[in-house]
Amino acid sequence: KQEVTQIPAALSVPEGENLVLNCSFTDSAIYNLQWFRQDPGKGLTSLLLIQSSQREQTSGRLNASLDKSSGRSTLYIAASQPGDSATYLCAVHEAAGNKLTFGGGTRVLVKP
Amino acid sequence: GAVVSQHPSRVICKSGTSVKIECRSLDFQATTMFWYRQFPKQSLMLMATSNEGSKATYEQGVEKDKFLINHASLTLSTLTVTSAHPEDSSFYICSAQTSTKADTQYFGPGTRLTVL
User: Fold this and answer.
1) Inter-chain CB proximity A105 and B43 less than 8 Å
2) What is the pLDDT of residues A14-51, one digit of tens each?
3) CB distance from B103 to chain A under 8 Å?
4) Which residues contact A72 (CB under 8 A, 6 or more apart)?
């Protein structure tokens, strides 16, 4: 059974600092891995999707890496801003059409 | 494109009543829809997977007679919480997937259910 873990569970940084969020998964036979952002009481916003054959994806200040063999993904957010404060969730997709398994999330607070 | 809506966004009901939540794919045909539940400060847990025109597949520990799922069309799935109790209070999120892009789920905005 796939298990997804995110460390740390919570993170507080001053504005301008880079953020590093970690995600690990137990079964490396994944189809893809996705990072989401969730604001309090809201749904999910997809940030980046990395296919199993890819090593990283970039979008603006966000960069996500994937090391499938070691079961790890890292989300980097450069030059953090207060608007980046949210919960970040990673989820692995085990095969096309199958379910997403989510990690517990990392709650990020960027202090102005 | 790929917009998923949920209705209602919030609902408060009395214990013992039933509540229906709708999930719609607005601009694509969703061959598969997923229902998730999220308790405060916890992650999303998959409740069930539904394919259009067939019975939903429930995850272990989810009571199918309590959480009724119907996926009668390619754009609509409904989740009915029957005989709701306070412990059913949660954030319910649906996602939708199309057969032509099976590696991506598009998420709805969620429904906050409060059972008094």
Assistant:
1) yes
2) 999 999 999 999 998 898 999 999 998 888 999 999 99
3) yes
4) A22, A23, A24, A25, A66
